[in-house]
Amino acid sequence: MRQSPALQQIQNNMAPGAYTAHGFLGDDQRNLIDIIKSDEQLVAKLGVTHKQIASKMKEMTKMGIKTPDVPVIVQGKYEVLVDDHRGFIPCPFADNVKEIKRNTQVRNLASNDIVYWSDLNIHMIEQHGFYEGNGSIFRNDPTTLFSVLGLSSKKNL
Amino acid sequence: MEILITIVSISGIATLLAILIVLADKFLNNYGQCNISINNGDKTFVIQGGQNLLSSLAEQKIYIPSACGGKATCGLCKVKVVDGAGPLLPTEEPFLTEQEKLDGVRLSCQVKIKRDISILIPEEYFSIKQYKATVMKINDMTHDIKEFSFRLDEPTTIDFKAGQYMQIETKPYGKIKEKAIRAYSISSSPSDKNHIELIVRRVQGGICTTYMHDYLNVGDQVILTGPQGDFYRRDDSESYIFMAGGSGLAPIKSIIMDIVEKGLDKEMYFFFGAVTKKDLYYIDYFTQLEKDYPKFHYIPALSGPLPEDDWKGDVGLVTNVMLQHIKDGSEMHAYLCGSPGMINACIKVLTGVSFREDKIFYDKF
Of B135, B267, B317, B327, which sits most exposed with the smallest number of CB within 10 A? Predict the structure, then answer.
C-alpha cells in the first residue's frame, strides 16, 4: 500500500544507523503502513488491543526494575530480567518521546519461551501499534507476546 | 477502483507538495550571511544562515557539550539565546524547565540560524577542543565491556578534570552510512596529558558501542571532542562515596586516581555493583590501592553471585550494601555513575541517610 510522505519519513527514521545500529525494520521489505496494518489484523484476531499488550509488558518491566540485572520470579509464572544503560533513545515516530535504554527479558516458566523488549518497544506498541519489522532484533510478534505473557482474549470472556 | 484512484491521487499530490517544499527550502530560503555574537560581543562570527546553531559553532571550533550529536535526545546542548532565535520547537520542550524557557534557554542543535543571533555560553566551553587520536590499545574488561586507549595526535595534550567526558565520532560501517557522535566518560588520570582512556559497555543495537566493539581496531584514527561535563570532584568535603555499575566505573576510576596522585587526604568509599564475578573488573587495581592508601575502601558487591564464583565479599544490591557501611552522609559527597535505574535508586537511598541532594553528583545522560 502507498503511504503518506510523513509515514515515509518515519520509515526513513527506522533505517539502520538513523536511531539504532540495526534499525527497526529488520529484513522486512514492506512499507511501514503494511507492517502496522498486518500486525493490527493479528492483534484483532487475538481479541486484544495494543494497549492491553503494552500494559502487560509495562507490568513485567515494573516488576523487574526492583532488582536491576537480577532475574525475579513474577506471579510464579514468569522470570523477569531488566537491565538498563546510560543514555536515551528517541521514538522514530518523531513524537518527541524519548525513552531510557532499558530492556526487559521475560521467560514463561511453563513453556520456557522468551520475549525481549525495550521501553521504546512498549511505547511504540501502545501509541503507534508498531511491533517492528520481520527480522528486527527487537521484533515481537503479537502472537508470541500474547502466548508468552499469558494474555486473555476478549473473545473468550 | 474509484477509491484506489483517489488514494493514489492524494498520495501523489502530497508527495509532490513535499518535494516542492524541500526544493523551496533549499533554493528559496537563502538566509544569507548571519552574525553570531557570543557573550555580549566577546566573540563574533559571520556564518552562512540555514544551519543549526550547534554545528555552526562547531565550525568555528566552539564545541557545545552534547552526548547525542545533535539529535535532540540528550538535552545537553543548552545555550541562552538573547536575541535571534525562532520559536521554541516541540523537540526542545521536554528538556527545558519553565524557568529556562523564560530565560531564553534553547537546545542549540534545534535552533536554525535565519538571522543575526546573540547567545550567552559559559567561558569553559571555549576550552573544549577537537582532537585527532589513534587507538593504541583495546582491552576486554568483561564479556560486554572494553577499554580503549587513545594517543592524542593533534593537538597532542589535553587538560581535563577527572570525571569529565569526551565525545567520539563514528565512521560509516556496515549498513550505517552516516557518522554518529556519542559521549563516554574518561577513565584515565588527568596527569596523563597525551592519552585518553574510555570504557565502553556494549548496548544491544547501539550505533556507537557496536562501532567501538566490532569495528574499531588498534591503529585506527578517530575524532574526539572534549573535555566536557560538570561531573567532577568538588573539593569542599573530606570524605566521598562513589557508587558505580558497569562502565560507570570509568569516571570514578579517574577521580580516585586523581585524588591518590595528588596525595589528598580524603576518606573514600567505592561501592561497585555487579551481578556475578564475571561482571567485575579492575579488581586487582582497586584491591591493591586499598592496601596502599588506608583511607580508600573498595567494596564490590554482587547481587547474584554464582556458586562457582566462590564469592566472599558483600552480597546484595549496591544500594543496600552501601547502607551497611555508611550511616550518616550529611558531611559527605556522593558521586554516582551508572544506568538511570541505578542512579535513581542510589539517590533515593542516599537522601535517606542524610546526604544533601546538592552534594550528590552524576552525569545526566
Answer: B327
Cβ-proximal residues to B286 (8 Å cutoff; 6+ apart), any chain: B256, B270, B272, B296, B298, B300
Q: Under a CB-based contact definition with an 8 Å cutoff, are residues B240 and B322 in contact?
A: no
Is the CB of residue B247 less than 8 Å away from at least one CB of chain A? yes
Query: Does ipTM top 0.85?
Result: no
What is the structure's pLDDT at A90?
A: 87
Looking at the fold, whether B313 and B329 belong to one and the same domain comes out as yes
**Does residue A43 fall inside a structural domain?**
yes
CATH of the domain at B175: 2.40.30.10
Residues in chain B within 8 Å Cβ distance of A22: 205
In a domain, B11, yes or no: no
d(CA B13, CA B101): 38
Look up residue B40 and give its three cell numbers: 555580549
Predicted pLDDT at B205: 85
**What's the rounded Cα separation, in Å, for the pair B154 and A46?**
60
Rounded to the nearest angstrom, the minimum Cα separation between B323 and chain A is 16
Domain count, chain A: 1
pLDDT at residue B4, as a whole number:
46
Give how far the C-alpha of residue B138 lies from the chain's centroid of Cα atoms, to the nearest Å. 20
Nearest residue in A to B19, CA atom: A5
pLDDT of the residue at A156: 53
B48 with B116: CB under 8 angstroms?
no
What per-residue confidence (pLDDT) applies to A85?
84
Q: Would you call B11 and A4 a contact, using CB atoms and an 8 Å cutoff?
A: yes
Residue B135 belongs to what domain range?
A: 128-228
B325 inside domain: yes
With a threshold of 0.90, does the pTM exceed it?
Answer: no
Which burial class, exposed, middle or buried, applies to B237 when counting CB atoms under 10 A from its CB (0-12, 13-18, 19+)? middle
Residue A33 lies in a domain: yes
> A-contacting residues of B 213-232, CB under 8 Å?
none
| Burial class of residue B353, CB neighbours in 10 A (0-12, 13-18, 19+) | middle
The grid cell for B251 is: 569516571
Q: Which portions of chain B are predicted below pLDDT 50?
A: 4, 8
Question: Of B289, B294, B271, nearest to B353 (Cα)?
Answer: B271
